Amino acid sequence: MRIKGDIIRTVRKQKKLSQVTLAAGICTQGTVSNIENKNVCDSLEILDAICKRLNLSLESVLDDNDEKKLTSILNHVEELCNTFKHKEAHSLLKSTSVNVSDFQNRELEVRWFYFMGITNLLGYNNTTDSLFYFYRADELGDSNSVYAILSVNSLGIVYEMADELDKAQVYYEKSIDMLNRMTIKMPIEATKIFFNTAKFYSLIKNYETAFKLASKGMALNKSYQSLYMLDLLAYEASFNDFMRSPDLKVPDFSSAKVFATFNDNQSLLDVIANDEKTLTH
């Protein structure tokens, strides 16, 4: 994809970072050099990570108007999905006039397929279309594509909803394995993968694994100094810690309540209130 490398170079120098320092844990120094001097980057994930390190918006460095437009739309779609407005997000995706297949940007295409899949699945319970989109995203994505990994994880959701738990477990485990094999710093969006998989393991009463996965999601938030889904992760960690520990008399939901209150997540607060009344050893 074509990008405005001069913006990245200018901000990097303002922050007194070398190319090696900017690249650390994200990519090679040569990739940063290509971004700054040749105005190209083959990976949206790498570019996004670099922008976050420099406190730049992704849209501000994209040099293609259509790519910039679609990136803005997908960012809005993601915000809607994070607040469970999947039907509204799906309508926004369907209304765009941008043809993603015209782009050379493979990562943008993968991201579009993932959101088409998740909005069909959670907005309309349309498993047929969602399966197509998730499989396509997995096929197109590379080993560092978090949206391809999210698509594999979402295949687990599809089979869980169909009560085919053995199939669901295969895809949940595959997505975690894919995360562990990433060669760039794990993106914050991987939080969803840890949460979805922890929730599944809790469902099948593997509380130890569920607790560990929720804890990893919380640790990922800490590395980004983020609150992304932290209320839900804290709940899963507390619930599964209680279920795996017979010596605990009651679950400790104190952190989950703080984060849920901060996020105005009343539905989670209601779940916690009910659990506090009913869960005892």
Automatic annotation (TrEMBL):
InterPro entries: Cro/C1-type_HTH (IPR001387), HTH-type_regulator_Rgg (IPR053163), Lambda_DNA-bd_dom_sf (IPR010982), TPR-like_helical_dom_sf (IPR011990). Residues 8-61 form the HTH cro/C1-type domain. It comes from Enterococcus ureasiticus. PROSITE patterns: HTH_CROC1. This is Cro/Cl family transcriptional regulator. One of its GO terms (molecular function) is DNA binding. Coiled coil: none annotated. PANTHER family: TRANSCRIPTIONAL ACTIVATOR, TRANSCRIPTIONAL REGULATOR-RELATED. It holds the Pfam family HTH_3. It comes from the Bacteria.
